[in-house]
Amino acid sequence: VSFTLAHLSDVHLAHVPRGDVLSNFQIKRIIGGASWFFRRSRVHRLLIANAIRQSILDARTDHVALTGDLVNIAGWHEFPKAAQWLKDFALPDKLSFIPGNHDTYVEVPWKKGLEFLAPWMQPDVLSKDPDTLHFPYLRLRRNVALIGLNSGSPQKLHRASGTLGEQQRRDLKLLLDHLGQQGFFRIVMIHHPPLPGLATPRKALTDAAALADVLQGSGCELVLHGHNHTATLNWHGSIPVVGVPSASLQGDIRHEAAGWNHYTIRRNLGRWTTELTPYRWNDGEQQVNRQATIMLLPPS
Ligand SMILES: [Fe+2]
């Protein structure tokens, strides 16, 4: 029996209403909006995001992990549209979302922002207060444990960094220890690259070193992240740390083309095996192509 999972990230959905830039005035949003209209909107395309989504739907995976940056400047009109895009994708219990730095670009009231995406971030056991989200959240699917972290928080101008903070790192450790003893395949989802040195200081997770210690000490079977818009595979001891490209980039000299990753997780004779099959957008063919499958085996 296998468990299949699709991982995508950094969709940067291509509808930023001009009014969103000016309403609820924030200087960071003004500059981010300008950057969107004059630069980023040319390379992040809704047509590609929709093709990636369809490719995942066609693969009929057991679950979908979406590691943040669904929107661009956290504009008030972006959130309901993002929620509709998710509704057309998967039921909340079939897709697990976590915020990225663009989903928390500026301070946004709960009701105007993340509440729209909250159904896809609910833990199996609902919290008492429906108006807040708790991270890490935990979702168990058969013998797979999905753990969602939130590294997004409003940053100063020109910064795209993130932080987990002590509470999330401590709760993550408790979860990993407990789930490890129970024999679950533990998947940690985080927007920012989780290890030191995987992102420039301007874009990095500020407590990556402390997170790396938690992962090392408690163990986990797979870490999924986005943010860098590139496909990467790093090993943290025996833990594979896999970054996926953006799900909407057209691809050119400066940008890696869009894609998503397909995982097949199996329990064989008391050991886990993980297969990774990349799917990538081909702009010439205007379609998503499946690439060769690799087995994730730690370097010896
Ligand atoms: Fe990001």
Summarize this structure as a short list of keywords or feature phrases.
7-stranded mixed β-sheet; 6-stranded mixed β-sheet; single chain; alpha/beta; binds fe (ii) ion; 300 residues
Structure description:
The protein is α/β, with parallel strands linked by helices and 300 residues long. Helix content is 23%, strand content 24%. It is built from six helices and 13 strands. The chain has helices at residues 18-22, 27-38, 46-59, 78-87, 166-181, 208-218, and strands spanning 2-8, 63-66, 95-97, 137-141, 144-148, 185-189, 222-225, 232-236, 239-243, 259-268, 271-282, 287-290, 294-295. The strands form two sheets. Strands 1, 2, 3, 10, 11, 12 and 13 form a seven-stranded mixed β-sheet that branches. It has a six-stranded mixed β-sheet with strand order 4-5-6-7-9-8. Helix 5 (166-181) runs parallel beside helix 6. Fe (ii) ion binds next to loops.
Elements, N to C (H/E): EHHHEHEEEHEHEEEEEEE
Quick one: how many beta strands?
13
Indicate the radius of gyration in whole angstroms. 18 Å
Query: Span between N and C termini?
Result: 27 Å
Largest sheet: 7 strands, mixed
What share of residues are in beta strands? 15-25%
- Say which molecules are bound, naming each kind only once: fe (ii) ion
SSE topology:
Elements: E1 2-8, H1 18-22, H2 27-38, H3 46-59, E2 63-66, H4 78-87, E3 95-97, E4 137-141, E5 144-148, H5 166-181, E6 185-189, H6 208-218, E7 222-225, E8 232-236, E9 239-243, E10 259-268, E11 271-282, E12 287-290, E13 294-295
Parallel strand pairs: 1-2, 2-3, 5-6, 6-7, 7-9
Antiparallel strand pairs: 1-10, 4-5, 8-9, 10-11, 11-12, 11-13
Helix pairs in contact: 5-6
The structure holds fe (ii) ion (FE2).
